[in-house]
Every structure is written in C-alpha cells, then in structure tokens.
Amino acid sequence: MSVTTESSHETKPQRHKVTGDVHLLLRRGNEVLFGQRQNTGFEDGAWHLPSGHLEAGESVIDALIREAEEEIGVTIAPADVQFSHIMHNSSSGGRMAFFFTVRSWQGEPTNLEPDKCSALEWFAADALPDHMIDYCSTAMQHIAKSTPFSVYGW
C-alpha cells in the first residue's frame, strides 16, 4: 500500500510581494510642490507629488533622491530626508507608499518629464489642489495630523 503525503509548501498561502513607491513632499515654507499628470493612462489631469517606484537593490531614501533628480532636477542630501508617512495601499494588489518631507535641496525644481507632467506648481499645505489622486490626498491628511501610518483601500 502506498501513502501519499502533501508537502507543506503546497498548503501554505503564497507569500505576498509588494511594490514600493516613494513620494516627495518638497516643502518651501508652507508650500508643497505638485506636478500635474498627463499621458500616463492613470488619473491624467490630477495633481500628484513627485514620486516613483522603488527599484531592486535600492533603499527608499536612494529611490527618493533618484526620483527627485530624474523628475524635477533637484539634488537632495540623505540627511535632509525626513520620514512623514507610510501607507499600505490596496491598489495593484498591494503597495507600500513611503512619504518623505524635504525642506533643503540644491537646484531649482524643473519639469524634466514633460511627456508625463504638464506643469509643476506650489500649493499651500492647507489649500491643496482639488483634483488629486485619492490615496495621495488621504496621505496628505494623515501627514497634516502627524499620523505616521495608514491603510488605504483594504
């Protein structure tokens, strides 16, 4: 008589893989820099923080510094990056969105991705644009209240 056994790896749930993104709150006094999305296929016309995906082998701080250079042409020192918020967002099967505030940088913010961004504009932190991507708007509300963590869309 033969006995069939299931291996334990077949009965365990699949390990979740999460995408990480970084979001930059570039602050000039009470103002925050936003870009207006275009030609992306997602929320075109909405205002959004400079942001991007975390790449393999990259820390969230390194990703933020890279994205700032690529998107708006500013240089940020790691010591000038301040953690503001992390959001576990349900979109695309689950993402971790890291929000960082920077008040000191080198260079003048310039739109280096005009194919994806129609404009850059400073908005007062207490008078943000009406048309924002919803999770970003929610994160900004948490940041205003100094809430370090949130869950969105689950």
Number of discrete helical segments: 3
* Class based on secondary structure composition and strand pairing: alpha+beta
Strand content: 25-35%
Q: Mean pLDDT across all residues, rounded?
A: 93
Molecular shape: globular
Low-confidence stretches: none
How far apart, in Å, are the first and last alpha carbons? 48 Å
Order of H and E elements: HEEEEHEEEHE
Total beta strands: 8
- Radius of gyration (CA) equals 19 Å
Largest sheet: 8 strands, mixed
Fraction of helical residues: 10-25%
How would you characterize the overall build of this protein?
By secondary structure, this protein is of the alpha+beta class. 18% of the residues lie in helices and 33% in strands. It has helices at residues 8-11, 60-72, 134-144, and strands at residues 19-28, 31-37, 47-48, 51-53, 81-89, 95-102, 117-124, 149-152. Strands 1, 2, 3, 4, 5, 6, 7 and 8 form an 8-stranded mixed beta sheet that branches. The termini are far apart. InterPro entries: Nudix_hydrolase, NUDIX_hydrolase-like_dom_sf, NUDIX_hydrolase_CS, NUDIX_hydrolase_dom.
Descriptive tags:
3 helices; about 150 residues; alpha+beta; eight-stranded mixed sheet; 8 strands
